[in-house]
Write a structure and sequence with these properties.
- This protein is α+β, with helices and mostly antiparallel strands.
- It is 46% helix and 19% strand.
- The strands form 2 sheets. Strands 6, 7, 8, 9, 10, 11, 12, 13 and 14 form a 9-stranded antiparallel beta sheet that branches.
- Strand 7 and strand 8 form a beta hairpin.
- The longest helix has 26 residues.
- It is elongated.
- The N terminus and C terminus are likely disordered.
């Protein structure tokens, strides 16, 4: 820059290359349009002549048309393309912009996108302070050339804070980080001038690099020296599961299951339980993206230092292989949510009325375990269990408590209807940060059909 403004026009081929780079970036990943379009538009407006602006827009449009044609052909048709776009938009609106923000305050979301990409507070705070210093110095010097980058970063961060999944905050923030890094470098330069060249800028950079390596080193060394938990779990499945086994995987482990478990039937957990939950002729194994300490399960884990929790999405730090015994299987016909889990167990929420079908194992009864968490908004909830052509059993589930119901079963396949007295919607509970709009009542945390011998022994003991 000479007098605070832009120098005379650059050769047109640089403008063409810049326009093509912007278009190709969007074509490679459509979500990058959130950052690239503001960058491109501001840059076009800052060009010196209408001829330059026309050339930039022309080549940008041509390149976008090329990748759009290719994408439509891959989708099979224009309708297929719009179906894909609508599907992604619907998932984004329901998950990233809504459910994923459950339990997170505005401050927590802001820290996830703005601070966490730079590491812990002792690493991130100096970078962000230097960036603020650099911003004021750039404004004082009227550095117009960095305006497109700043606009890109501001628009992108605004969209991210309002709409994006905080769990992905570190990764999603990447397009906006070059602007922060540039401002931090300008801040270092300004401080160096104030200190009359006594401040060594490269020493500050080396200090940050050393701190970043010390922080991430344990995680990085683990990644290059030990197999990942998902891969270790896959190897274990190969060693114990027969070829007719059905592998039910958590969604984050879909690539692992699809590519590394060829030859097995592989389905997402909720889909697989709908198809095989009532069948006893196939072995079922759950491949979970967590450390699930359940009986007969096998857990594989890495150490997860602070760098893991701050810099990752929380996936792949642990994986479990959990066989599903035939006595614990059931088919959710209606009103039963997909499985959820933590380290200590798994559960399925029941709605206003849940209906399940049990396979015919010749059992005389089924032991049903119902629970509600400590932060349950209802004090107690009475639940009635009706067996088609059979008995009716009821019990009361209290906040933070567990209720075990032994329900007699008639011969043959049995169908259970579980009806609670009360329900609630998490998103409507005052004082909660939940965005969950499901209608819920109590959780099924255990179900086991009791074989005849075991049932007789239990009755004798009573």
């Amino acid at each position: 820059e000479a007098d605070g403004g832009l120098k005379p026009a650059a050769p047109l081929h640089w403008i063409v290359l810049a326009a093509l780079a912007c278009a190709v970036t969007i074509g490679w990943r459509l979500q990058f349009a959130i950052a690239v379009v503001p960058l491109f538009l501001v840059t076009v407006l800052m060009l010196r002549s209408w001829r330059e602006r026309f050339v930039a827009v022309q080549w940008f449009a041509i390149a976008c048309a090329v990748w759009l044609i290719v994408l439509i052909s891959v989708c099979g048709s224009v309708d297929g393309f719009w179906t894909m776009i609508r599907g992604q938009a619907a998932y984004f609106a329901a998950h990233d912009a809504d459910l994923s923000r459950t339990g997170r305050s505005t401050v927590q979301i802001a820290l996830r996108f703005i601070s966490h990409p730079w590491g812990p507070k002792w690493l991130a705070l100096p970078v962000l302070v230097l960036a603020f210093i650099g911003l004021f110095d750039a404004a004082r010097r009227r550095l117009r050339l960095i305006v497109p980058l700043l606009v890109m970063s501001a628009v992108y961060f605004g969209f991210a804070l309002l709409m994006m999944d905080p769990a992905d905050g570190v990764r999603y923030a990447l397009p906006a980080l070059p602007a922060i890094a540039l401002l931090a470098a300008l801040g270092i330069e300004h401080l160096r001038q104030l200190s009359r060249e006594m401040l060594v800028d490269w020493a500050l950079l080396a200090l940050y690099a050393f701190g970043a390596y010390a922080y991430t080193g344990p995680l990085l060394r683990q990644r290059v020296s030990e197999p990942s938990p998902p891969y270790a779990a896959i190897q274990y499945i190969r060693s114990v599961a027969p070829r007719n086994a059905v592998i039910l995987y958590d969604l984050p482990l879909k690539p692992h299951a699809q590519y590394l478990l060829r030859g097995y039937t592989r389905l997402r957990v909720d889909e697989g339980l709908l198809q095989y939950g009532h069948r006893v002729d196939r072995p079922l194994y759950q491949l979970t993206d967590s450390a699930t300490e359940t009986p007969n399960g096998k857990v594989f884990r890495w150490k997860t230092p602070d760098a893991y929790t701050k810099l990752t999405r929380g996936h792949y730090g642990a994986a479990s292989v959990v066989p599903l015994p035939v006595t614990e299987r059931f088919l959710a016909l209606s009103g039963i949510s997909p499985p959820e889990r933590t380290r200590t167990g798994s559960w399925r929420w029941i709605g206003a009325r849940g209906v399940i079908a049990l396979p015919d194992l010749g059992a005389r009864s089924v032991r049903l375990t119902l629970e509600v968490p400590n932060d349950y908004p209802l004090g107690t909830n009475r639940v009635r269990v009706d067996v088609t052509n059979g008995a009716t059993v009821s019990g009361i589930v209290a906040r933070g408590g567990k209720t075990v119901l032994d329900v007699p079963l008639p011969p043959g396949r049995a169908q259970l209807t579980i009806t609670p007295d009360k329900t609630f919607v998490p998103a409507q509970v005052p004082g909660r940060l939940s965005r969950d709009r499901r209608t819920l009542s109590v959780m099924i945390t255990g179900l086991e059909q009791i074989a005849p011998a075991a049932a007789a022994a239990r009755q004798a003991a009573q």
